[in-house]
Amino acid sequence: MNEIAVSDSAMTFREAVSGCPAPEAVLAALCLVNVSYYGFDGRLHGGQLLVHSSVERDIHEIFSLIREARFPLRSVIPIARYDWSDEASMAANNSSAFNYRFIAGTRRLSRHASGLAVDFNPFQNPVVYENGAILPPGALYRPEAPGALTESSPVVQAFLRLGWRWGGLFLHIRDYHHFEKQT
Ligand SMILES: [Zn+2]
After folding, report:
1. Which residues constitute the domain of residue 111?
2. pLDDT over threshold 90, residue 3
3. Of 46-55, 95-104, 110-119, which range is least confident?
4. Is the residue at 121 inside a domain?
């Protein structure tokens, strides 16, 4: 593999879970995966994803495809860097996985709360609600834009093949940046 030009994240596991209110058993099931990808700047970046240990192999497979296809990612930094704020991470167009949080607008724990969901480039791939509201604010879904996901994109196809669901195919909310592992 080529030399990493830009390091976006080089945390220890302890740093990546620091300040997280999740029970110890939840944290013990996680692992911190070092990933590399091309940025929108065309340079090879190094980042980290905090995921459930059972999907580590999937993540490595997806990221080799992401590199091969030169699918650009803005950054891949554990959400501890954003004080566990999904809004702040999305506003920075950051891609991330584990976050001990509820599904927006509900009291149900998200798949992110067990490290079994991943979000990519929320600015290119926003959430679009039935009433037309879009998150993060100011984002626009343009399927042809670099870093945008569509059903035919190799990244989406690879996730589906590995048994993940893509939020772009959800019935009501279109959650274009979201993937979750079915267990
Ligand atoms: Zn998500």
Report:
1. 6-181
2. no
3. 95-104
4. yes
Dihedral of CA atoms 49, 52, 58, 64 in degrees, nearest 10, equals 10
Task: Give domain status of residue 1, yes or no.
Answer: no
Tell me how far the alpha carbon of residue 178 lies from the centroid of ligand 1, in angstroms: 4
pLDDT reported for residue 101: 86
- pLDDT average, residue stretch 44-66: 98
Q: How confident is the model at residue 175 (pLDDT cuts 50, 70, 90)?
A: very high
Q: How far is the CA of 2 from the centre of ligand 1 (A)?
A: 30
CA 10 / ligand 1 centre spacing (Å) = 22
CA of 95 relative to ligand 1 center, distance in Å: 9
What is the Å distance from ligand 1's center to 12 Cα?
Answer: 23
CA angle 140, 84, 52 (to 5 degrees): 95
Residue 165 lies in a domain: yes
The total of other beta-carbon atoms located within 10 Å of residue 183's CB is 10
Cα 120 to ligand 1 centre (Å): 8
Domain count, the chain: 1
DSSP string, 81-104: GGTT-HHHHHHTT-BB-----BPT
Q: How far is the CA of 70 from the centre of ligand 1 (A)?
A: 22
Cα distance between residue 53 and residue 55, in whole Å: 5
Asked, for residue 136, whether it belongs to a domain, the answer is: yes
